[in-house]
Each structure stands twice: as structure tokens, then as C-alpha cells.
Amino acid sequence: MSEATKALEEEAEKKRKEELKAAREKRNKELKRGPGVAALVQGALKRAQEAPSMGKKDELVEKAQRQREEAEAAAKKELEKQEHEKELERQEAERQKREEQKKVEEENRRKLEELQAKERERVQREAAERRRQAEKADEEMKKKEAETRDQRVKASVEAAKKQQADRAAAKAAKEAESLYGDMPQPDADSAAASEAAMRAAGERGPQADLGLAPEDRSKIVFLDVDGVLRPARAGTFDISTDGEAAKPDTSDFFPAALKALRHIMERSSAKVVLCAEWRRSEVLLKALEDIFNKNRLRLWSDITSQEVKLEKGSDPLRSFADRRSKEISAWLRKHEAWTASHRVKGALPLAFWASNRVLGNCQCFAESNLPMEDEIIVALDWTPNTNHNGFYLAQMAGLYSTAGLKVTLRSADAGDGTTPARQVAQKTAHFAVAPSESAISFATTEPDKPRLVAVAALLQGSASAICTLKSSGIDRPAKLAGKRYASYNGRFEDPIVSRMVSNDGGDGAAVQFHGLTAHGYQEGDTMGAGSVVASYLEKGRSDSTWIFPAWEGVLAERAGQHLHCFALEDYNIPYGYSPVLLAHPEDLALGFGWECFLVLAVGADRSGKTEACTR
């Protein structure tokens, strides 16, 4: 606002006040002049009444009337003037009030802006101070870690030297029993430094962003190299057991195994403990570290003990594997408090066996002091078929006996009508091949029943389907409405079939369910292997049933019977990992060698299902 404008407003304000003051003074003077208008009117009327009526009566009356009208007009004008003055006063008061309110608001806004500016400055100062303290603490931590690491490496070098000296007396025997006995021997100082370097490998600073979740220390993978990430044979490059590599050539590492290890890290975030012979050489360590970095793998967190001596035996490979298991057991005993706090279970963790089975050719064994039962009984869900390949291949290859396990595979027709899951619940079998619904059922029924545990899935994907004969004309699930379905009487089977029919646009409630009977198999099975297709569909006892096309579908094709198969996943029924291997929780707690059995049997044959029908 300019000075001239401000001066004009002040002059106008002064003039308004003067006019208001003059009007008030004028009104006060008029009120002091004498009787009011009403009094004048009354006087005039009185004089008019007292005046003689003769002659001038009409004139006096008219005069009085005029005087009354003039008095009334004067009174009205006076009232209007008073109202106008009051309105002026009200408007003036409102204007002053608005000006005062505006001044207060401007003052409050100014104070608020000052407070906000001060708060911003305070926050910035505190943030800067926190960053400074964090940087200082980080520097101090790095310095302390470096000092601690140097001390640990030094102590480890001394301990490794002592261990290497103790092993020197048995070098010849160890070389004879080694997987790589014809290669150079280690240097004690170099090996000691190597072990210390291996233990410090995980502390060499952060790796590049690997895209992996933080390490989950409640899960452990004991990782080997030879026979897992690369072939288990000597001569690929210069390496020896307890030895040192001069020319580490990592070109023979399996790409698929490295990808599988990456997959394990992505899915489990497990802590990796290196138990390979490579942990004894810094040269091999560096080569292995390069392989890990190249394939975006998280470096190992620790290594197993090197204090266990190799015991001579008739089977060198068995002796070598036995020492490996003892090294792992020693690591677990050493970290017993840690494993208990992180709920790491098992005398020989399944993670070790599973990693070897997934990554390469597992050399499975049983530690001599591991408590084991005389026999492991597996109750199969049906007549032996392609779903059981892994069990029979392991048995034919002698893997069970090599691992010190006695395994009996019990066919379904030898179970006296008792389902495999109930055999495990009653402890007449250790494992049961059963649908995943059985695991759910035992976990959600009567509290007095054991909660059976699904320890493995036998197949990598869905291998079952609902089938009909092509000759029936039922070429889609929707057409099963009003038709007969031969049911295994599973708790969830009938609802699943009804849902599939509904998802295809049919009336799922109209499916006619009826149970299978052993009598039907014996009378009508012309295909063998307990074929429901032959005993029920082919004989007209039912219109549809649930089968595994990889074996029962193959039997039907061989018998000249063509099928329509409807895969559940094609009709929005998710795969439920079926069949699974069930075990009793008390048996698992005993640790009777079931980890080794799983590695040998489950998934030994992953060839997948044979397409025996047209979808």
C-alpha cells in the first residue's frame, strides 16, 4: 500500500467521523428546543376543540389536521434518521472488527511461519547429527571387526598348524584312502593359512547385490563340491585330499548344479556351511569364491571341522564318507547352543542330504553311532507302479544296503484293507505313500490321532487326472453331471470332483458318487495292476474315476482302450503335491536314518509322467 493511498484513507475516515459527530449534535439540539412533536399535535387539537365552532370551525379543523400530518411526517423523518445513524454505527463497528481480525490472523501466520522455520532447522540439525554418529559408529565397528578378524585368523593359523602337524604322521594312509590320492601333498603352513582364510571368507566384505533374501540361520545346508557341483573323480585338475591345488580349472562345474544351488538359496535363504575338501586349500578357496560370485551365489558362512581323522577300512569311499558325516556332527555339537536357539533339528540335517541329492550324485551313508531301527517299512498306496520308481530303483541299485538300511516296500494289497496312512498312524509302517488330503485329514480330525507329517512330495508336478472312456462321449468335465463316478471315498475327493465339474460349467452337485470295492477289482480287472479303468469303466460299473495316466493310462492304451483325461489344473483346481510320503511324528523325532532313506528313494526317478491319453 502506497503512502498516498494510506493518507487518502485516513482523510476519508476522519471525514466520516466528523459527519457522524455533527449529526449527533444536531439531533441533541432539536430534542432540547421544547416539547416534542406529539405535544405540539395535542396542543393544536385542544385549541381546535376550544375554538368557537361558528364561522371558522372548518378552517380550524383543517388546520389541526394539517398540523397533525406535518407532525407525523416530522416524527417519521426523525425515526428514519435515527435508524440511518444506527446503521452507520453498526457498519463502522463491523469494519473495525474485520480490520482487527485481519491483523490478528496476519500476526498468527507470521508466528506460525517462524515456528515452522525453526522446526525445519532443528530436524535438519538432528538428522545431520545422527548421520555423523552413524558414520562414526560404522567406522568404529569396521575397525573393531578388522581387529577381531585379524586376531581370529592368527589364532586359526596357529590351531591349523597344530592340526596339520598331528595329521602328518598319517599322511601315507590318508593318501591311500583319498578320492585324489595320486596328487600333491599339502604344505602345513599353507594349509593352516587356508583354513583360517576359509573361516574368514564370509567376512571379506559385502558381495554385490545378489537379489537374495537375508540369510535364514534356522536352516543349514552342508555343501560339498566334488560329486555335487562337479564330477566326483580325480584327475580333472591338480587336487588331493588334504592337499593343495596348483592349477584349479573350474570348467567342469555342472551349470545345472550351480543353478540348483541358486534355487535353494532363493527358496530357503539357508546358511551354507562348506564341508568340501576344497576348504583345505586357499587356492581352491579363491577359485570356488570366483565361481560363487560369477553365478551370483552367497558365499558360505562357515566350514566344518578338520580335526576328524580318516579311519582305514575295506571300503575307501565309505571311510571317506564316514569321516565327512563325523565332521558335520562335530560342527553341530560345537554349535549346539546356536542350533538349539535357532531350532535347527536333526542329528544329520536333512538340508545336507537334500542339497547333495538335488545338486549332484549323493554319496549317502549312515553314521555308525546313529540310532537306527532294524527295518524301515514303506506302505505303498497301490499296486507297485511308476509312481514308486524311486523306491524300487534305489533298492535294485543296492543303495539301501550300502547306506546300512533295510527297507521293505509293502504293496497296498498286503495291508489287510488298512490304508497306508492308517498303517503309519498305528505304527505298523514307518512311511506311507498317500494323497496330500490324508495329511490334511489327520491334522484336522480327532485330537487323539497323530498329526502325520508329509516329509516329501514324490512328483514334481501333477500326474493324476479324472478319466472317462472315449467311447462314452464324455469329453469334458461338465458332461459328468448326472453320470456315475467311482470314488476312493477320500475325505476331499468328491468335493474336488464336484468343483471341477462346476468350474467347467456343469452341475457339480448332480454327479453320482459311489465307492470302489476290492470285489470289483478281482472280478473285472483285465488289465492287471489293480486297474480301475478295466474293472469299472470298461465293465460299465461307472462312467469316470481318478487315475494316474502315467501307469494306469498306459495299461489302458496297451489294452486298446482309449481315454479322455481331465487334468485338475486345467479347470482351476491347484496342484496339491500328491502323492506325498507321510511319517509318524514320533518316528521322525527318533531319527532312525529317515533322512538318508529320503535322499535315496524320493525322487530317484524324476522322468515325469507318460502321456497315455489325449487331453
UniProtKB/TrEMBL annotation:
Taking the record's annotation, the residue ranges forming a coiled coil are none
Ranges for the region named Disordered are 1-211
- BP GO terms, sorted: thiamine biosynthetic process; thiamine diphosphate biosynthetic process
What reaction(s) does this enzyme catalyze? Answer: N(6)-(pyridoxal phosphate)-L-lysyl-[4-amino-5-hydroxymethyl-2-methylpyrimidine phosphate synthase] + L-histidyl-[4-amino-5-hydroxymethyl-2-methylpyrimidine phosphate synthase] + 2 Fe(3+) + 4 H2O = L-lysyl-[4-amino-5-hydroxymethyl-2-methylpyrimidine phosphate synthase] + (2S)-2-amino-5-hydroxy-4-oxopentanoyl-[4-amino-5-hydroxymethyl-2-methylpyrimidine phosphate synthase] + 4-amino-2-methyl-5-(phosphooxymethyl)pyrimidine + 3-oxopropanoate + 2 Fe(2+) + 2 H(+)
For bias kind Basic and acidic residues, which ranges apply?
1-33, 55-177
Q: Which InterPro entries match?
A: NMT1/THI5, SsuA/THI5
The record describes the protein's role as: Responsible for the formation of the pyrimidine heterocycle in the thiamine biosynthesis pathway. Catalyzes the formation of hydroxymethylpyrimidine phosphate (HMP-P) from histidine and pyridoxal phosphate (PLP). The protein uses PLP and the active site histidine to form HMP-P, generating an inactive enzyme. The enzyme can only undergo a single turnover, which suggests it is a suicide enzyme.
What is this protein called in UniProt?
Thiamine pyrimidine synthase
